Amino acid sequence: MDCPRCQTQLPDVAHFCHHCGLDVRSTDVSRRKSFAVKPDEPVASFSLVSTIMPRGVSEHPQTYRLALVVALTLALVTAIFGALPLAVMIAAFAIPIVYIVYLYDVNLWEDEPVPVVALAFVLTGALSLLFTIAWTMLRGETFRLGGIDASGGGLLGPGPQVTDFLLAALLVPLVGEALRQVGPLLLASRPHFDDLMDGLTFGIISGVAYASFDTVVKHWDLVTGGGVGTDEPGMWASLIFLEGFVKPIVMGTATGIACAEFSGLGRGYDGFTPRYWRGLLEAVVANVLYGGGVYLFGFVGSPTLGVLLSVIWGLLIAAVLILRVRNVLHHGLMEAALEAEAREELGEAELQFCRRCEMPLVSHAVFCNACGAALRVQQSLHPERHRVHATAGAPGTTAPAAEAPATEAVTAEGSPPQAGERPAASAAPPPGGAGPAARPPGRGEPGSDSFFDQEAER
């Protein structure tokens, strides 16, 4: 059986093409019903974890989902009981902390997580801190988020002002998005970080970092003012939900779209292409709509109603952005797989297994032909946890089936060697040929992943 999309010869029992990911058992040519990151979800889904944490969804998505729910619940409970300083700090740093833990957990960039976190989180956080302090001091006490007085409710001023609206809906979103692009683009332009999912991840980190420090500055009087009582628990809980969950998701996904388009498909970053400018425009429009809407809703008759309307408005924008991110990610994985197939630069390696369904992977596979999962999202650089050890001639171990050519040597993780790195020598097969590769002992310890080359040749 041949794949109708890339003409790869497939086993008769294959459900998905192991090179281009096409569902050969369905007429869904674009595979809209099977998300490349998580095949049991459609592309048009509002699943947050598989959207913003694609590399960790194959192993333990419930861990990240539970961490987000616990942090959000703790922030809401402390807000309801009037402990606003603690609630604001939890809301401001809950999602960033969970996301940084995610980065270290999946170990995306091997021994370089520090520069990644420094440029994508620390740099953006510092720029956000300086910029937010500057424009809030410029406006003084006449401007608060949604016109809400942090000392205990009520509205400030007679109504919306043109200068304040332009500040909230135009200047801050434009400058803020420009600042959020700095660190991610510096990272995505490096050869080791030019993959589409890298660009998306850098953008999300930058967005949540900006939102975090923006929240702290805007609500510094709540942080230093102590408890405020429980006269308006619904308003304070809604405000914490808006600032701690809705705003980071909006800013993170919006910036992630633009940075993903900067990285582009396949090896090498695409740079400032029309696709990047379109993604940047989408990010700016989303932030303009969010900032303007939140400002205007603050001037309705009730502060509680104003914040609730802001939450609903922000969730609608976040939903559209999540769908957009999933489409960008799905399209990128499918198209990049075709590019990898055309290059045909992967060499032979020992038998490997899908970490999601534990089925054997066909040589050169970029997708699992049993469950359809994109193997790039299963990439792990934890060799002590996921590598299939093969020692020639040792009892109970297995050697590779054949030694890869020197020009196409493959590392132990199943990917081509990094630029400037000497290919590892393959172990000689035992007398009589190589035996079958050993299956990993359990679901949590599958073999090393097979994924196509993501390094740019400079």
UniProtKB/TrEMBL annotation:
<keyword id="KW-0472">Membrane</keyword>
<feature type="transmembrane region" description="Helical">
    <location>
        <begin position="63"/>
        <end position="81"/>
    </location>
</feature>
<feature type="transmembrane region" description="Helical">
    <location>
        <begin position="305"/>
        <end position="325"/>
    </location>
</feature>
<dbReference type="Pfam" id="PF13367">
    <property type="entry name" value="PrsW-protease"/>
</dbReference>
<dbReference type="InterPro" id="IPR026898">
    <property type="entry name" value="PrsW"/>
</dbReference>
<keyword id="KW-1133">Transmembrane helix</keyword>
<feature type="transmembrane region" description="Helical">
    <location>
        <begin position="116"/>
        <end position="138"/>
    </location>
</feature>
<dbReference type="GO" id="GO:0008233">
    <property type="term" value="F:peptidase activity"/>
</dbReference>
<feature type="region of interest" description="Disordered">
    <location>
        <begin position="384"/>
        <end position="458"/>
    </location>
</feature>
<protein>
    <submittedName>
        <fullName>Membrane proteinase PrsW, cleaves anti-sigma factor RsiW, M82 family</fullName>
    </submittedName>
</protein>
<feature type="transmembrane region" description="Helical">
    <location>
        <begin position="280"/>
        <end position="299"/>
    </location>
</feature>
<keyword id="KW-0812">Transmembrane</keyword>
<feature type="compositionally biased region" description="Low complexity">
    <location>
        <begin position="390"/>
        <end position="427"/>
    </location>
</feature>
